[in-house]
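Side project, low priority. Logging it here so it doesn't get lost.
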Amino acid sequence: MRARRGGRGALGARHRREDRRIRVRATDGDERLTAADLGAPLGERATLVQFSSAFCAPCRATRRVLAEVSAMVEGVRHVEIDAEAQLDLVRRLHILKTPTVLVLDAAGAVVRRASGQPRRADVIAALGAAV
């Protein structure tokens, strides 16, 4: 029997592990978000944008991680967006699941993206590309 992607076999474990990595997508290269898009001001150095949904358990854990990191790094702001309430923005940015985290530089350019619950060390490393 073949293991399904995201299943319980070795391939599923690999997919879950890779899903947390923060990476750059080619389509994100020219994407910029403004304070009007986010409904909140951008951070002075970087902004961590989290797309969440109401009944998403990993979203709560992601919220804690991003809040901790933004409190640790000066000039970094954490903005959480309800994906269900901002469908136009979700479609524009090709958000396929929650949580999805975008790392923006000071000008609002998307420099990194992660789907799933990121680790604190990965978020801190991704901020290096934004600041």
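Brief comment: The first strand starts at residue 46 and ends at 52.
Revisit when time allows.
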